[in-house]
Amino acid sequence: MMDYKPVPTVKDAAPFDAAQDAQVLRAAMKGFGTDEQEIIDVLVGRSNQQRQTIKAVYEAEFERDLVDDLKDELGGKFEDVIVGLMMPPVEYLCKQLHAAMAGIGTEEATLVEILCTKTNEEMAQIVAVYEERYQRPLAEQMCSETSGFFRRLLTLIVTGVRDGLDTPVDVDQAKEQAAQLYSAGEAKLGTDEEVFNRIMSHASFPQLRLVFEEYKELSGQTIEQAIKHEMSDELHEAMNAIVECVQSPAAFFANRLYKAMNGAGTDDATLIRIIVSRSEIDLETIKQEFERIYNRTLHSAVVDAETSGDYKRALTALLGSA
């Protein structure tokens, strides 16, 4: 993103003493009762790489697996947050993808949130780790869980057809791509989804940004308006996610968080996944966008949502200062 400045809420702790942290965690879980606040303070206050170092030191020192100990001592959604923080980020997303496709039914919104928001470079890592972890290619599993043009779009994204960020943007090509989108949608009866899929999955995000500008010049409508008229259901959601992420990933995730907390009940899985997975990327930027769009802080929204106890404390600690 040319003018997108991702700011995280979680960074490397300095100074950092893995041996000291391992001792503190062991003491917090030893004997009767658990000191959850100590666990939050140590693990939220360290970067993922530092947590991996603590895990290795903990195992060497106590001949115990830190994640197993945490699972034994913690429970519920608080455990989901802490165990999520202990996973390397790409593995964490792979686990979320796998869970979204496990059992009866598929959580299409989760697939969209994880797959449609990634650059080609990030996608390649996810694909490699997924197959290594689950002994099955991600594309194959996804094909058995989705259908139609939605499946086709996700398959294109997962197979890595998107141009890399090192591909120069091309204004003439953007004009041509905008014209193709116009011809495939607004300019005709019915919609040629294949054209939308091809352009939305192949062009890099910076190139798509140009395409969307050219589209507005050409048609007088935004690409969002066109997608709304031309698509429905999951395909509409997937296309919209790509458009939002091209324009502002932070706004996309802010909207997802708002939906997760708005209405009856809280969608805890989405709340946890976004806060954990974006904490070292752009959670600070997401907080700013959330406040700009909804006129309240993300911190206050999480506090007012149906979250409580250590779970609430862990989420607000990841959000950093209110």
Record the SSE blueprint:
Elements: H1 18-29, H2 36-44, H3 48-62, H4 66-73, H5 76-86, H6 89-101, H7 108-115, H8 120-134, H9 138-145, H10 148-158, H11 171-184, H12 193-202, H13 205-219, H14 223-230, H15 233-247, H16 249-261, H17 268-278, H18 283-294, H19 298-304, H20 309-319
Helix pairs in contact: 1-2, 1-3, 2-20, 5-17, 5-20, 6-7, 6-8, 7-15, 9-10, 10-12, 11-12, 11-13, 13-15, 14-15, 15-16, 16-17, 16-18, 19-20
What is shown here, in short?
This protein is an all-alpha fold and 322 residues long. Helix content is 70%, strand content 0%.
Q: Mean pLDDT, rounded to whole units?
A: 94
Give the distance, in angstroms, between the N- and C-terminal Cα atoms. Answer: 26 Å
β-strand percent reads under 5%
Q: Describe the biggest sheet?
A: none
- Provide the structure class: mainly alpha
Total beta strand runs: 0
Low-confidence runs (pLDDT<50, min 5 residues)?
none
Number of helices: 20
List the helices and strands in order. HHHHHHHHHHHHHHHHHHHH
Helix content: over 70%
Rg measurement, Å: 21 Å
The outline comes out as elongated
Overview of the structural elements:
The chain has 322 residues and is mostly helical. 70% of the residues lie in helices and 0% in strands. It has 20 helices and no strands.
Which features does this protein show?
322 residues, mainly alpha, 20 helices
